[in-house]
Amino acid sequence: MRSHSSALSFPLLLRRRLLTTATHFHKPTAKMANVSDNSLRESLAEKISTIQTQGNVVRQLKASGAAKLEIETAVQALNALKLERSSIEAQIQAASGDSSASRDAFRQAVVNTLERRLFYIPSFKIYRGVAGLYDYGPPGCAVKSNVLAFWRQHFVLEENMLEVDCPCVTPEVVLKASGHVDKFTDLMVKDEKTGTCYRADHLLKDYCKEKLEKDLSMTAEKAADLKHVLAMLDDLTAEQLGAKIKEYGITAPDTKNPLSDPYPFNLMFQTSIGPSGISPGYMRPETAQGIFVNFKDLYYYNGNKLPFAAAQIGQAFRNEVIAPRQGLLRVREFTLAEIEHFVDPQDKSHPKFSEVANLEFLMFPRELQMSGQSAKKLQIGEAVSKGIVNNETLGYFIGRVYLFLTELGIDKQRLRFRQHLANEMAHYAADCWDAEIESSYGWIECVGIADRSAYDLRAHSDKSGVSLVAQEKYSEPREVEVTNNNTVNFTTLRFNTPVKYILDCGCKIVAALKLIVAPVKKELGLAFKGNQKIIVEALEAMDEKEAMEMKAALELKGEVEFLVCNLGKTVTIKKNMVSISKEKKKEHQRVFTPSVIEPSFGIGRIIYCLYEHSFYTRPSKTSDEQLNVFRFPPRVAPIKCTVFPLVQNEQYENVAKLISKSLTVAGVSHKIDITGTSIGKRYARTDELGVPFAITVDKTTSVTIRDRDSKNQVRVDVEKVASVVKEVTDGFKTWADILNEYEIHTSESADD
Amino acid sequence: MRSHSSALSFPLLLRRRLLTTATHFHKPTAKMANVSDNSLRESLAEKISTIQTQGNVVRQLKASGAAKLEIETAVQALNALKLERSSIEAQIQAASGDSSASRDAFRQAVVNTLERRLFYIPSFKIYRGVAGLYDYGPPGCAVKSNVLAFWRQHFVLEENMLEVDCPCVTPEVVLKASGHVDKFTDLMVKDEKTGTCYRADHLLKDYCKEKLEKDLSMTAEKAADLKHVLAMLDDLTAEQLGAKIKEYGITAPDTKNPLSDPYPFNLMFQTSIGPSGISPGYMRPETAQGIFVNFKDLYYYNGNKLPFAAAQIGQAFRNEVIAPRQGLLRVREFTLAEIEHFVDPQDKSHPKFSEVANLEFLMFPRELQMSGQSAKKLQIGEAVSKGIVNNETLGYFIGRVYLFLTELGIDKQRLRFRQHLANEMAHYAADCWDAEIESSYGWIECVGIADRSAYDLRAHSDKSGVSLVAQEKYSEPREVEVTNNNTVNFTTLRFNTPVKYILDCGCKIVAALKLIVAPVKKELGLAFKGNQKIIVEALEAMDEKEAMEMKAALELKGEVEFLVCNLGKTVTIKKNMVSISKEKKKEHQRVFTPSVIEPSFGIGRIIYCLYEHSFYTRPSKTSDEQLNVFRFPPRVAPIKCTVFPLVQNEQYENVAKLISKSLTVAGVSHKIDITGTSIGKRYARTDELGVPFAITVDKTTSVTIRDRDSKNQVRVDVEKVASVVKEVTDGFKTWADILNEYEIHTSESADD
Question: What is this model's ipTM?
Answer without folding.
Answer: 0.78
